[in-house]
Amino acid sequence: MNVIEELSNLNPPNTEFNNKLMLKALLLLENPQYTYKVIHIAGTNGKGSTAAFLEEGLFQAGYKTGKFSSPHISKINECITYNKVQIDDNTLVRHYLELKSILGKSNIYPSSFEMLTLIMFRFFAEKGIDYLILETGMGGRDDCTNVVNSNYSIITNISLEHTQWLGNSLSEIAAHKCGIIKEGLTILGENIPELVTTANKMTSNLVLIDNQYDYTSKLDFKNFTTLLSFNDKENKSYQFELGLFGYFQVRNFLCAYTVLKDLGVNVNIIRRAAKETIWLGRLQKISTYPLILADASHNESGTKVLAESLRQYKNKKESIIVCSILKDKDIDKMLDNYSKISQNIIFCNISNQPRASNPFILAKKARHKFKNIYVIPSPELALYQAKKMKKQLVLISGSIYLLKNYFN
Fold it and tell me: How many domains does the chain have?
């Protein structure tokens, strides 16, 4: 096993869902997370897209910009980017080996995600960045990223997820997500009552996207961009073309826009950055003939907005979905949403992923939801079969682990 594989597969003897170990480790490292300004992002969906809009905007405005996002699709280096460039293998390995030695002397043994987070904090301190765009891993309050004094807190949305850790109600989940709120400006991407109520208890410095902007949007299926028109509180009108495709990207962009405007970034820079923003595997076109879209929707709320964005494809006979879903997701509701896109679906197995559902179990659950159901052993063969069917649209979705097979 090489060093990066070792980093990706750390199995510490004791793991807890809190950030106590992180705080202890960071103290040994002289708290690098306090050497730059931080924009902290939590939410069930949309964190990565919001971070991508922010990264492009800050970079084009001339800021030295770091971004930490997860999970990765192709390689772990994607999680840490400096001025839009992934951390290179040699730097990643150097930081890992140094931290492994420092922490081991104090009997501190982080998980893979905790170690990657520590590497990120240290690397960006070394680079002397101006802003860190920081995605939470899971939840917020007890997440290992929640060790910063953030200047901005963004919560994109909430829905039931990771209930064994975050709770079985939206109020409980809101409490976890709102745990990232500090003294700076807080931005909520959706007016979900439980989220708004909880946030209001924690800060008066709050922006609600749906209250701040009056917006309309439409999708450009030729260029696979999103066209946005909106008025702000001063009733000034703006038009933007977003490089990311989907109605759901509008709120993500407006969260980023709110931060960039608050920082005084010129609107023309924001407009250019919005158009040039890309984010791997988010309703992304990976082929034109045939049209193949890959989307990292991995839960019920993600597939719901995906179906909304693809409602223009009304002929469900002429599309097919290549799919795998993890066991801990709301499979029935996800399949209901997929059935609004297509009447054809292929289920496949993801090797070396114990959380993946058995494709035959998925096929059984899909009965009465789809006209044509197929089970194919591997993602590669599933896509090959989908292409052979000569449909107008092939959609790959259901799990980020599935997408990894097509971006390596």
Answer: 2
d(CA 341, CA 310): 7
Angle at 214 between CA 208 and CA 217, to 5 degrees: 110
**pTM tops 0.85:** yes
Looking at residue 159, its pLDDT comes to 82
* Token couple for 197: 């109520």
What CATH number does the domain containing 68 carry? 3.40.1190.10
Reading the block at residue 363, the tokens are: 């096929």
| One domain, residues 82 and 155 | yes
pLDDT of residue 282: 87
Q: Do 292 and 403 form a contact (C-beta atoms < 8 A)?
A: no
Q: What is the DSSP letter of 177?
A: H
Contacts of 275 (CB under 8 A, 6+ apart): 225, 240, 241, 242, 243
Looking at the fold, whether 217 and 341 belong to one and the same domain comes out as: no
Q: In terms of domains, do 181 and 294 share one? A: no
Domain boundaries, position 402: 284-407
What pLDDT does residue 163 have?
59
Query: Are residue 127 and residue 188 in the same domain, yes or no?
Result: yes
H-only helix segments in 315-399: 331-339, 359-365, 379-388
Instruction: Give percent of the chain above pLDDT 90.
Output: 85
CA triple 291-293-299, angle to 5 deg? 155
Within this chain, do residues 88 and 53 fall inside the same structural domain, yes or no?
yes
Final residue in a domain of this structure, among 248, 276, 304: 276
Contact 42, 180 (CB under 8 A): yes
The whole-number mean pLDDT for each consecutive block of 10 residues of the chain, a chain of 408 residues, reads: 88 78 96 98 95 98 97 93 98 97 95 97 98 94 95 92 73 93 96 96 96 96 95 91 96 98 97 96 90 92 92 86 95 97 96 92 97 96 96 95 88
**Lookup: tokens for 179:** 């745990």
Residue 185 and residue 208 share a domain: yes
